[in-house]
Amino acid sequence: MDEQEMAIVLKEKDDLNREMSNLRSQRKAEAQPQQLHLNYISKESLSLLIAESTNRVNELEERLNLALSLQTEATNKVKELEDRLKESVILQIESANKVKELEDRLKDVEILQAESTNRVREVEASLESKSEWWNKKEKFYHTLTEFQLGALRELKFASQSIHQEIVKTKKSYSDESTTLGSRIKALDDAANNYYSILAEDRKLHNELQELKGDIRVCCRIRPFLPGQKRKHSIFEYIGDNGDLIVSDPFKRGKEGFRSFKFDKVYSPEATQAEVFSDTQPLVQSVLDGYNVCIFAYGQTGSGKTYTMSGPDGATEEEWGVNYRALNNFFRISQSRESNFTYEISVQIVEIYNEQVRDLLGKNDNSAKRYPLFKIIIIHVVKTTSAVLELMDIGLNNRAKSSTAMNERSSRSHSIVSIHARGLDLKSGSSLRGSLHLVDLAGSERIDRSEVTGDRLKEAQHINKSLSALGDVIFALAQKNSHVPYRNSKLTQVLQSSLDGQAKIVMFVQLNPDASSYNETLHTLKFAERVSSVEDVRELTEQVNIFLPDVARKNIYISSKLI
Ligand code: ADP
Ligand code: MG
Questions:
Q1: Is the same domain home to 105 and 218?
Q2: Which residues form a coiled coil (predicted)?
Q3: Do 230 and 356 share a domain, yes or no?
Q4: 494 part of a folded domain
Q5: How many independent structural domains does the chain possess?
Q6: Does the predicted TM-score (pTM) go above 0.90?
Q7: Whose CA is nearest to atom 5 of ligand 1?
C-alpha cells in the first residue's frame, strides 16, 4: 500500500475515532440523568428488597424453628408411644400368662368344687345320723347346766359373806398395825434414847477413869510361899486408900518405918479377881478407843507373872490380868454387838537384850529378823480361847536358857498386845484402842563384882530399859513436852501407845520377907517416882462426888434394858 492509501486509511481511522468519542460523550450526556434515576430507583428497591427478604428470612427461620420443635416433639411422642407399645406388649404377655394361670386355677377349683360337693353330701348324710345323738346330749347338758347354775348361786352367796369377813379382818389388821406402828415408833425412840444413854455412859465412864488419873500405881504384896520359913512381913500397915508402911528389919523403933502412898495397895490375901476389878474399867476404855498399858514391875519372884498370867496351869479363879482382860474384852464387845462391831487382834513379843522378838513367829531364833516392831505379824482373833492358844504358843516360844539364878523369862520383857478396832454401826465412825500387858524383867540389881560377861550385859540392858521406862512415865505424869522414848527398845515399842491420852497401870510387886528388904525399898522408890504427882486425895474426893451420878445412870440404863 502506498502512502496515500495509508494517509487515507489513517484519516479514515481518525475520523472514525472522532466520531466514536463524539458518540460516546453524546451517549454519556444522555445516559447521566438516566443513570442517576436508575441509581435512585435501584437503591430504594434494593433496601425494600433487603427488608423484605430479611423479613422473609426471619419468617422462614421462625418457621424452621417451629418445624424443628415440632419435629422434636413428634420424635418424643414417637418414643413415648414406642415405650407404651413395649409396655402394652409386656402387659399383654403378662395378662396372657395370668389368664393361663387363672384358667389352671379355675380348673383346680372346679375339681375341688366337685370334691367338696361330694364331701358335703357325705357329711350331710353323717350329720343326719348324728343330729339325733346330739339332741339327746343337749338335753343331758341342759339339766347339768341348770344344776351347776344353782351351785354357782350358792357359791356366790358364800363368797360375798367371805368378802365381808375379809373386809372386817382387814380393818382390824389395819387398826392393829397402826397401834403396832406407834408402839414400834416408841420402841425406836427408846432405842435411840438408849443409844445416846450408852454413849453418855461411855463418856462418863471415861471421864471417871480420867479423873482417877492417867497413871495409876498399885502395889501388890505377895504372900509367903509354902516353903518359906520366917513368916514375918516387913509391911507394918496396909491401908485401904493406898497407904503403906514398911519397917526396916535392921532398925528398931520409929526410925525404921517408912511410909508410902499409892493409888492402891493389895494385901497378900487379895485374890486375882480383886486385883483385876480395879483394872477392869480400863479394859472398857480400850473398846472406847483408848490405849492402855498395864505393867508388872518388881524383883524376880515377887509375883509379876502371877499377877499378869496366874500360876502355871491356873484355874479360872487363878487367872491373871491378861486372861481376865481378854474375857472382858469379848464380853463387852458382844454386849455392844447391836451398836458396834469389833475386830480384835493379838501380838506377843519379847524384848531381850534390847532386841524385839515375835513370840508368835515360827522361827524361834529369829531375833535379828525383827529389828523393828512394826513388821511383827498381828493375829486376828474371834474368841478368848483363840487368844489363850496364842498365849500358850507365845509362852512356849519364850526361850528358857537356864542359868544360876533364873530362867530367861525373868530377864526379858514380855508384851501381850491386844488391838481393838471398833466400828460404830450407827454413826459409821471407827475407833482404835490397844491394851498392852507387860510382864517386865526382874528389877533386882546385880552386884557387879559377882557377875561378868553375858549376865552383866543382860543386867545392864534390863537396868537401862527399866530406868528409861521410869523416866518416860515420870515425864508423862509431869506432862512434860519432851518424853524420852528413844532411850530403850521397851519405851520405843510402847511409844505410840503411851503417847497422848494413854492410861497406865503399874502393878508394883513386893516381896514380904526381910531378906528382900533392900530390893523392896528400891522397888518402892521406883514406884513412888512414877506415881502421879497430883494430889491423890483431892482426886479421890472428886471421884466420890462423881460416883452417885454414875450409879444413877447405871440404874436408868438397867431399867431401860429390862
Ligand atoms: P515373877 O514373875 O515376878 O518372877 P512369879 O509370878 O513367878 O514371880 O511368882 C513367884 C512365885 O510366887 C510363884 O511360885 C507364884 O506362884 C507365887 N506367887 C506370886 N504371887 C502370888 C500370890 N499373890 N498368891 C500366891 N502365890 C503367888
Ligand atoms: Mg515372871
A1: no
A2: 6-119
A3: yes
A4: yes
A5: 2
A6: no
A7: 303
* pLDDT score, position 402: 39
218 and 105 together in one domain:
no
127 assigned to some structural domain: no
Atom of ligand 1 nearest to the CA of 220: 23
Count CB neighbours of 206 within 10 A: 19
CATH of the domain at 446: 3.40.850.10
Which among 195, 231, 128, 168 is positioned nearest to 511, based on CA atoms? Answer: 231
411 pocket-lining for ligand 1 (C-beta < 6 Å):
no
The last residue of one of the domains, among 67, 85, 109, is 109
The whole-number pLDDT of residue 189 equals: 67
Q: Are residues 446 and 438 in contact, defined by beta-carbon separation less than 8 angstroms?
A: no
| Residue 101, domain member (yes or no) | yes
* Contact in structure between 242 and 503 (CB atoms under 8 Å): no
Is residue 542, in this structure, part of any structural domain at all?
no
Q: Is 352 helix (H, G, I), strand (E, B) or coil?
A: strand
Q: Which of 60, 88, 109 is the last residue of a domain?
A: 109
Cell of 105: 386355677
Among 220, 222, 295, name the best residue to mutate to test ligand 1's pocket (greatest count of ligand atoms within 8 A of Cβ). 222
* Nearest-angstrom CA–CA distance, 507 and 482: 25
**How far apart are the C-alpha atoms of 60 and 98, rounded to whole Å?**
55
Chain centroid to Cα 195, Å, comes to 25
C-alpha 171/C-alpha 150 separation (Å) is 32
Say if residues 469 and 495 touch (Cβ distance below 8 Å): no
Q: Please, what are the averages of pLDDT over each run of 10 residues along the chain (562 residues)? A: 80 87 86 79 80 86 87 88 89 88 90 88 84 82 83 83 83 80 71 66 65 82 86 89 91 85 94 94 89 96 94 91 89 87 88 87 50 55 79 69 53 91 91 94 84 86 95 90 94 90 93 93 93 56 63 65 52
Report the C-alpha gap between 493 and 487 in whole angstroms: 11
From the CA of 309, the nearest ligand is 1
Q: Tell me, yes or no, whether 218 and 100 share the same domain.
A: no
What residue type is assigned to position 553 of the chain? K
What pLDDT is stored for residue 403 in this prediction?
42
Give the H or E element holding residue 542: helix 536-561
Q: Alpha helix (H) ranges present in 376-479? A: 384-397, 453-477
DSSP annotation of 410:
G
Note the pLDDT of residue 26. 87
Same domain (yes/no): 83, 225: no
Mark whether 311 and 436 lie in a shared domain.
yes
Please tell me whether 300 is known to bind a ligand: yes
Same domain? For 104 and 238 the reply is no
